[in-house]
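Entry 14. Structure prediction run on the chain below.
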Amino acid sequence: MDIDYSSLKNNIFDVVAEGQIKLGYHREEIRMYYPLTSLNNFLHTRFNDEEMYRELQNFAGYMGDCAGKISISRNKSRFCFNLSADLVEYVHTNVEQSEFLVEFINTIAKHHIVIEDLLAVFRKYSDKIYFEKIEGSEFDYLIYFVDGKPDNYRYCITDEGCHMTYHRFTEDDFREIVS
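Output returned:
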């Protein structure tokens, strides 16, 4: 069975790049954690914990060949990806920052913004956005680009009074959260 690693690789790159936008670049190791359900979604598999762990050793070899070393450990259904400083540097050097994400993060980092400020950022990059006020959830709003451009993430926004926070999910992971 040939596994397509591109979705998982792209997500790792996206998360590292997002962190670099927020915190700046530092040449250092990073640890990331994924649940089994997310990994199965990325790889389009239905592996159990042990099968996934074995497959992720192949993924680690694949990443070492193209970007930098990853080591993977697990605690039951939770997998830890230890990304080497070389891989973090690879993302910094080779993955172009999303103009949208830079502007979004710079906007949401400000105090006393309102949801319309965030919607304006989304609308600047596309007229095809989905917006919903969420009732009965830990999040207040859901926003995303309907056609997946400039990205395909689901942005869950929480209004905490004097500032807003966000969580960014893949479509599959968002579906898991709300189901």
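The chain is about 45% helix and 20% strand.
Filed with the rest of this week's runs.
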